[in-house]
């Protein structure tokens, strides 16, 4: 069963169970997947669906920050519940230590020495850990390592 099929199946289950929140979330994710397929003009594979889900998680994290700044903690909590529900479909996330080691290896492989080389290092790391760590975390670690 592909990841897209799993999302559709979970949406059906939520619909039958009367779980409006989950049904709505699955609908939004499937809509984002469909939009990406239209943009790409072909079906997405599981890896690409994971990228779409990661994008949806990132949007919700950004929303949480804004809601917390505005004192809307109940809305931030709702967004966090959605993130928790979406993380089920994501590959297991790597620990900070593992990500930092991947960054160090990529710096050695690319020969990066300054912050100007960040792009090369980040793209190298992200290609290896696909979906297993947030880009912002990788970027932060690359910046820290290159500053040393």
From TrEMBL:
Top-rank lineage group of the source organism: Bacteria
InterPro entries (UniProt xref): Asn/Gln_tRNA_amidoTrase-B-like, GatB_Yqey_C_2, YqeY/Aim41, YqeY/Aim41_N
GO molecular function: carbon-nitrogen ligase activity, with glutamine as amido-N-donor
SUPFAM superfamilies: GatB/YqeY motif (SSF89095)
Protein name per its UniProtKB record: Glutamyl-tRNA amidotransferase
């Amino acid at each position: 069963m592909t990841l897209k099929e799993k999302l559709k199946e979970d949406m059906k289950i939520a619909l039958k169970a009367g779980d409006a929140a989950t049904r709505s979330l699955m609908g939004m994710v499937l809509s984002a997947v469909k939009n990406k397929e239209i943009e790409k003009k072909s079906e997405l594979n599981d890896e690409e669906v994971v990228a779409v889900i990661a994008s949806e998680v990132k949007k919700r994290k950004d929303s949480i920050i804004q809601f917390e700044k505005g004192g809307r903690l109940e809305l931030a909590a709702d967004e966090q519940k959605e993130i928790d529900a979406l993380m089920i479909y994501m590959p297991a996330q790597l620990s900070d230590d593992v990500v930092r080691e991947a960054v160090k290896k990529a710096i050695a492989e690319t020969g990066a020495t300054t912050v100007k080389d960040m792009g090369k290092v980040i793209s190298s790391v992200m290609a290896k850990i696909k979906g297993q760590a947030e880009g912002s975390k990788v970027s932060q670690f690359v910046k820290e390592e290159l500053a040393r």
